[in-house]
Design goal:
InterPro entries: UCP033563 (IPR008323). The protein has helices spanning 43-52, 58-61, 69-83, 131-144, 161-172, 195-205, 216-232, 280-287, 299-308, 330-336, 343-347, 349-361, 378-388, 400-408, and strands at 17-18, 23-25, 86-88, 94-101, 104-114, 123-124, 146-147, 151-155, 177-180, 186-192, 210-214, 253-260, 267-269, 271-275, 292-296, 314-317, 322-326, 372-375, 391-394, 419-421, 431-432. By secondary structure, the protein is α+β, with helices and mostly antiparallel strands. It folds into two domains: 17-266 and 422-435, no CATH class; 271-396, no CATH class. Helix 3 runs parallel beside helix 4 (131-144) and helix 4 crosses helix 7 (216-232). The two termini are 35 Å apart.
Amino acid sequence: MPPMANPELPVPDGLVLRPFHGVRFTVNDLAEVTSPPYDLIGEADVRALLDAHPNNVVRLILPGADRHRYAEARKTLDHWLSSGVLAADETPAVYVYEQSGPGVLQRGLIGDVGLAGPELRIILPHENVMPGPVADRLALMRTTEANLEPIFLLYDGTDGTATRLVDQVAGSRPPLMETETRDGIRHRLWAITDSGELASLDADLRPRQALIADGHHRYATYLALQREHHAATGGDSTEITPDRPVEPGPWDFGLALLVDSSSYPPDLKAIHRVIPGLPLEEALARARGSWQVHDHTDLAEGLIALEEAPGPAYLLSAGDSAHLLTHPDPAQVEHAMPSERSEGWRALNTSILAEFLLPKVWGMRDDEQAVRIVHHDPKTAARLAQESGGTAVLMNPLAVDDVLLVAAHGERVPRKSTSFGPKPRTGLVLRTLTLD
């Protein structure tokens, strides 16, 4: 029997990416008003972005720690809209977005994606979410009534007309905007407004399935806001029939970048852990009972060994020396891993970290309080471990095919297992729900 959807919510007929009134900055120095995604911005980064431009989008996506911060973000957004710092495009569009630079070329489509719960198998999550970030994004989106940054979706567009149109637009038409950020990446944006081209995109995309590459917490927030909105507006579910479906509204969509992974394969990077409460000597002593430990004189040497090691493998460091864990006791691992999970899920290094290394070897859970997250940068993780008297746990990135296999089984990898890129730049195009 096919999965059942919530009868009180609109059910999209496949993968829907509809046009919307994009809200864009009107300032001259566009690069200086943009930012990375909110969850990649540290405190020092916030200060640097605020210093870069008084209208940097970080004022909206990370409005501070004050209890009135969400209302302040709404006030800032309204002021920027009324003063002309931000302006909405007159004609609804699906936008072609290109990122290019040394070793980087990615093109995709930015639009309103029709929301679909995971049971519908239209938009597949692959990672678990934590309640804290969802509550934060929920309060921000509810108060601002806006999607301030797109989530990142991947789909297999092999032999599709959508990607051919994306490439044709990017290769032959002048962009709406073009800017280069300080990381050397050039960003360009085009608007597709022609009804025939939009119909072609829609016909190609609807039969397809998308994977959430980045933005699980924001997508969970989209779904929570959708449920809130339909609950608040009443609507007796007994009156809903196949002949009288729920009409979709602004809350039934969310801002998304959709990229054809067959034409533009993603870059999947590792997410490292720092455990402030676990000294390196203690971590190594406990690990020796179930892992082979290989000592290296410095971090650089250890990272080379980690890259070459058969999985699962973890490099432990606190700034100077590095120690590689390999070849865990198979009986201990087998006993620790959940039997109901698929073989592919149980083999992931992040699964073994979450189910065996952290709880069984080190006696702790992989939660936000005990374990800090560092995206991509092993040197930063090692430095933070040294400063806190703790341990950095450095890992190789997961393979894209392994993530897809787990998602196809309807499973989710442990939290913060993947970092797909290149991620869309925040601030290039926003969405206010009051305009849809």
